[in-house]
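To close the section, here is one more complete example, presented without commentary so you can practise reading it yourself. The ligand is zinc ion.
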Amino acid sequence: MPGQRYTPVEMITKLVSFDTTSRDSNLPLIDFVADYLKGHGIASHRIPDETGKKANLYATIGPKDVPGIVLSGHTDVVPVDGQPWLTDPFKVVEKDGRLYGRGTTDMKSFSAVGLSLVPEFLKQPLKTPIHFALSYDEEVGCLGAPRMIAQLGKLGVMPKIVIVGEPTDMTVVNAHKGVRSFRTVLTGLEQHSSAVHLGVNAVMYAAEIVHFLGQLAEEWRTMRSRPESGFEPPYTTIHVGTIQGGTAQNIIPRHCVFTWEYRLIPGDDGEQIKRRFDEFVAGTILPKMRAVWPEANVETAVRAAVPGLKPEDGSSAEALCKALARTNEVGVVSYGTEAGQFQEVGISTVVCGPGNIREAHKPNEYIELAQVKQCEAFLRRLLTEVCAA
Ligand SMILES: [Zn+2]
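Output:
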């Protein structure tokens, strides 16, 4: 049976039609891609999560005994809940030279354009293999890719280059910040709100810690800024994203939970941030809480840790992508990607993909068709490249 063919836009439309919001399964999309590849005679490997509800997919086109080039993309998307979408987010609408839909920019288009070219890749004998690496749970802390990366050696020869197709407007990005995020839970003691001296107010102590994080953030901004890093903003940032606590106005709250993160310029000492946080909690907050109630507590757990991508000037991934993108420039981005995880195992990695990060995670997310075309041209040049060497 001949394999099905899709134009790049048709393949983008197809991948976007699967609602792969990170909290849900991505298996329908993975099944589709596996079937599509199988239709073209390509076997794929699934690397599932511990529940079996999600999976990475890894597939190789071309020779199995030489190191290849990975086209890496995450399959999950951020939620559309509460966002004012003008059209169905999971139905691609083409308008004014743009494709609208959740994941068009972040980041189904890169994988889709690559997949649409599979029949082209198969037409000629490749000297260097192309790998597709599709991951799950990138948007919730790059949780999926490490399971696949750990298997790479077993799934064939270790690849030599990874191109992570997150949106960079098809420019070559050789560095990004790392992210570490935490969840801090305060346990206080409830009382009638008139008896403040007998209770331990979890919300107010949380506010003190949040204020301390604000001071730390200000310190990094003003005293440790590194304009030469090229990052925007050019310093390690600290941010509190959510906070919940308390049950009623007249009850001293027992519980408060907040989530926070820092985004680190590669080379900055992030451990120092966590150390100072811990010192403040242990030295300033806990003694006050426990003076009233010895069982009061503050606990902090790591939610996600995504390594930064360190610049490796002149690396093989950088050289290749500069040639394919017809540019001499390299840039940096402040958002995290799976690129640092691939680099950690020793593979030369850059980020280069269609679309602009400004459109990501927003209602009415779109990608310019011109970007899709540019991505297609980039991957067709890659095809020429992998046939030659
Ligand atoms: Zn993304």
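Once you have examined the tokens, check your reading against these statements. Residues 178-306 form a domain with the Alpha-Beta Plaits fold (CATH 3.30.70.360). Residues 270-292 form the longest helix (23 residues).
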